[in-house]
Amino acid sequence: MELLLHTHVLVASNADVLKGVGSSEATYATHLLNGKSELVIQDVLNQLNQRIDLSHVSSADEMVSLTRSFLVTYFKENITSSLYFAIALLQYFIQNNYTGPSIDMDVFGLLYAAPQDDSSKYQKYFIQALTILGQPAYELLSNPECLTVSLLLFEILTDSQTLFNDQAKDDDLVLPEIVPGMDGLLAIANWWRARALLAHLSVVPEPSGNQPSVAAAIMSTIDIAYCISKALPAEVEEDFKKKIFTIYYLENVKTSLAINTEHLCLPSLTKVKKLTDFKFVLTGARAKRTKFQEIGHSGLIILAHSSTQDENNNASDSNNPENFVLESDLLLEKPIFDSIGAEPLDEQIIKRQKIDPESEENNGIDEDRILPMAIRQEYIPKSLQELDPNEQPTLNNLDTIQLLLRIYVIRQTSPARDPLVEEELSSIVSRIIYQKGQANWSLFSRSLWERSILETNKAKTVERGLLQMQSLVEELGLMIQTRMIPQSQEEANNSSAPRLKYIHQLPYIPRWELDAKLAEKYMSLGVLRSAVEIYDRLHMWCEAALCYAAVGDEKEAEKILANRVIDVPGDARAYSILGDIRQDPSLWEKSWAIGKYVNAKNSLARYYYRPPKDSGVTQDFEIVLGHLNDSLRQYPLSFDTWYFYGCVALESGKLNVASEAFSRCVSLDETHSMAWSNLSASYIQQDKLKEAYSCLKRAVGFDSQKNWRIWENFMIVSFRLNEWNDVLTACKQLVSIRRDKQGEGSVDMPVVEKLAELLITTDYSEEKQDYFQRNGIEFICITLPSLITTNDRLWKIVARVELWRERPWASLDCHEKAYRVTLHNPAIDTEEPAWNNTVDACEDLVAAYESLGERKGKYGEGSIVCKDWKYKARSTIKALISKGKGRWDDTDGWERLMEIRSQL
Is the pTM above the cut of 0.90? Predict the structure, then answer.
């Protein structure tokens, strides 16, 4: 029963499922599901009737050590109630910092005995305790003691290595191991610990330290969900067990987003979509967007339908944040779409694309995309075609989360401010906001927030976007002294349960980050004063300094940071940013010495890699690699740092180091084509051609940008390994990429000659051709002739292949074109090599007339290739003699030309 209760709390079931269960643990679970974490905290501490004496504590380390000893003494034995207490502390912290409405209860006073006059001192101790690698936690954090005690309790309950006071000893870190057969309650405790660690990461500016590695280790394996589901009583319904796996996959995606490994998200998104049988597709439809449109124009739309509905939507969900009306004289509140099936197929202005067989099985939709896309109307599943695009049904809340998570994945893996990407994101947000019925408070408010961010990038919607952002910040009811937008009493008393229900599946965005994003938008619009006022109110001095530096006022930025490091000498991030502004290595060194702040080492590496001209410092690869190595020891999940590390190692000739670095890169992001290409380059220099070939195969597979260097390397390595199919593919791709700028210069002559030689040594059959023959013929006989302008060698290659194809008339035509190319070369009048080359081409053409002229022609029996071939041969020689007479009479080329004429 204990496991079942904890599982209900884990997946945030409705509290109704626990009616009639009369134990104290059930009471705790009910309180947590109702968003009443303060009742659990109060009851546990009242029963304990013990407080931690802080009167002799003089540092954050001492306070953490004392707290840990106290928790081990009083909480380690009873894992069930201790786990409720740890969860309640985390939920209390999240409600007061992330979701609102705030709870007014003195948790510190219930847990600690300390002089009242020193409360601010202990507040600073807790902030210091939550510091990660020189990055102090947000200094106006509410109830930091709740997060600290919760993290300590989860460490104790899971018997894990502490991450407090141990930041420098990362070499000794032991990652938690989730193994099949683990006790169900222990698995739940680990899961909650991962949630607490992500909350911890969200209170510092950037993810770093050991916390990301530990969170990733816990949430990287589905075994954690199996351990819980298998330990549940046999009578538990399968739908409930399926919900555990659904929640796991969603939080797996959230974890990857939080620790900047977003490229690992797609497999989990694909699995959870199948698990919930969620049907959705991105497609196009005609839409009216303004009040004066009579005819709809194409636009993007998400068609989505949930297979199941939420079992019991809370009535309080109806108290959602206000969705501000656009109130535009031009734009409609939302696009009005035409019916999906209204447009005839032959009027769809779209190029029919080739769909591979696997996609055709899915009606032309590629499911393995962040946004599955239907490029034609007939590819849309029938169940989605029947939806009314202007009034789509309410989605299951877990399906809504899937869409929201896809927004974050797209944003973190796409170029910023890309218009097409923003249209895709807008279509997702619109599907959530404009659906029938009421969505959950957290999901609806997050959708409004994402819409606001998109709308502040457009002149016609920026006003609504800023107003909506301001409203959402105030809606939390946290640390807001003055309100711009009136609030009703009903909103003020809004229940906390709907706000907390899905908070662990969404990326954590604390209240100050919402405010800071609003300030960032003000700054982007040039409203500097409002932005700085927000940063000042939030005490976000580093961000205020960066704000001034962004507008060119570096003196003011330096002044703010100088005051900051005086007030808080332990703020390593402030020292590092000041070093970035001044380009002063000593400040970066101090930042590293204070808190092992990884960006300080990264800045030092960039400084010594490309020193300023007036610094007197010379480039030193050894120093650069040393700094990057230090950075990666502290935070090994940074793709950008590994990539830079590998590039420097490759440039300095440290090939083993480069191989290791780029191997780590592709393990973090296997879709990064340049990382695969650079890994292959390190293998090539080590003469490991097979390894290089494998890497380049992966590189070209992910090369969406069509990088010619990658394809050229692939062609060269394939050539050296005699992988002729790949040589041909690479050669074709290179021509496709470079033909517009380089024309025939995009053709690699030695490679094409070798491909032609291999082609004509095979047996030709018009009916039965393998891949190499079919594509080789297409490339040499169709693609190359469309490129050639001045290269006679290419025409001769085409001629040889056409003759192999038993098309002598086409071969002779190529020889004629090769000769004309050389004849029209302006250099023939002034340069003897050009003259000799023309004589060679003339000789080849005459030989072609002789050998091909009498052969069977293209029209079958009775036709020949060239009836008057002798006349054409004589005319060719005669014309060339006329052209060279008086210029090249005494040259070897002239003598050969005379000999050719005499032999004819």
Answer: no
